[in-house]
Structure formats: structure tokens, C-alpha cells
Amino acid sequence: MFLHRRTPQLPTPQEALRGRPTPEFTVPSRHTVLGNALLGPYPEGLEVADFAMGCFWGAERKFWQTDGVWTTLVGYQGGSTENPAYEEVCSGLTGHTEAVRVVYDPRVVTYPELLKLFWESHDPTQGFRQGNDVGTQYRSAVYTHSPEQEAAVKASREAYQKVLTGSGHGEITTEILPADGRTFWPAEAAHQQYLDKNPAGYCGIGGTGVSCPIGVAPADG
């Protein structure tokens, strides 16, 4: 991906690129692996979860390989620029994360189980980086779609922090914010299911090796 030599810093909304009122590209209609719609409409009873955990190529594959996940798509979330392009996000001037939207069946896979996969598949203590990928777009984040999701994320963060600290790791830096007001902008076609199209492609995903207690148990439980 991209290695920035300057110290990453989030732009303010005033500093961020302005963007555009409509996207410059179209998004494919179907998931190349699961065969389901990327942008919806989604069947009744499914729920949506949004995660950012570094480069979205490998992160998306983690979720589409999970039983109960109906579709996944990658995009940009948490910044200020409307309808951003990949190069703009990688410049650090939009404020967005590289995010994965997960549409799942809660009767098959629970939100806490998705959180376990999220925490264990990256290092949430690294701030504006994941390994060699340095930049604000690589920060760890969860954008929640309900009060129940928010409560579950915070409980899992407390529980995971306890075991991370016991293993010698630092403080979790994961951004936890409502998805409401933080538009998920789908990424370009080339980035959707990238590692299905390019099996030998770059995957920077990697965890701490510390298991997350799920649960999710309270930190003092």
C-alpha cells in the first residue's frame, strides 16, 4: 500500500478535501465470492456492521470467509470528504478510514462474534498505522448502528484491553463512533473483493496473537 514518511495527522473538516456531489465511478452490483448484492436492498432480518482495521483488502476477506456473513464491501468512512477516491483517501487529506461494511445474519453469526474477529485480526494499539502501513486511513475504528452495538463494542474493548495489558501490549486506540452522520462511501470496483480477484495480492492484516474473550465478558468478569 502506501508508506507515509510524515507524521500522520487527521485533517480538520476545514482542511479536508472538498470532494464532489456524485461519485466518479460505479460500484459492481454483486459480490464476486458470495454472489449477493453489494449495495442492497438487503433481505429482511439482516444487520449491518462497519469496521476499519488497516488495509481493507485483507480485512474484507476475513469477513466474507465467516459463516453468516451475507455480503461485504469496502469503502471510506469517518472523514469529511464527499465521494472520495482511493488516491485522495491515501493522501491523508480526507480523514477517512479504509472500512469494511459487513451485512450479516444475526441468527447465524452474532455481533460479538464479529467483534472477536475484528479485535484478533489486527493490532488495535497502533494509532495511525497497521504494521508498515502508516497513515490516518489505517487507524482502527468501529462505527456502530445501534445502542446495542455500541455497548457490545465498548464491553469487548474493555475485556480485550485487560488481556492485551496482561500480554504486554499498549492501550487500544480504536475509534468507536456512531455510523449515523459518518457516511460509508463505497470504494472503486477494483478494490471490492480485491483478494478474490488477486489471490497473491498484498494483505497487511495481522493481529497481536492475543485471544479476545468472547463473550463478550465484562473486563472485571
Notable characteristics:
six-stranded mixed sheet; alpha+beta; globular; 221 residues; disordered C terminus; disordered N terminus; 5 helices; 22% helix; single chain; 8 strands; two-stranded antiparallel sheet
Question: What can you tell me about this protein's structure?
Answer:
This is Peptide methionine sulfoxide reductase MsrA. Residues 1-22 are annotated as: Disordered. Keywords: Oxidoreductase. Belongs to the MsrA Met sulfoxide reductase family. This protein has 221 residues and is of the alpha+beta class. Helices cover 22% and strands 18% of the residues. The chain contains 5 helices and 8 strands, in the order E-H-E-H-E-H-E-E-E-H-E-E-H. It has helices at 56-64, 86-90, 111-120, 147-166, 194-197; strands at 47-53, 69-77, 97-104, 129-130, 133-134, 140-144, 175-178, 185-186. The strands form 2 sheets. The protein has a 6-stranded mixed sheet, covered by helices on one side. It has a two-stranded antiparallel sheet with strand order 4-5. Helix 4 (147-166) links the parallel strand 6 (140-144) and strand 7 (175-178). Helix 3 (111-120) runs parallel beside helix 4. The longest helix is centred in the last third of the chain and has 20 residues, at 147-166. Residues 1-5 and 216-221 have low confidence and may be disordered.
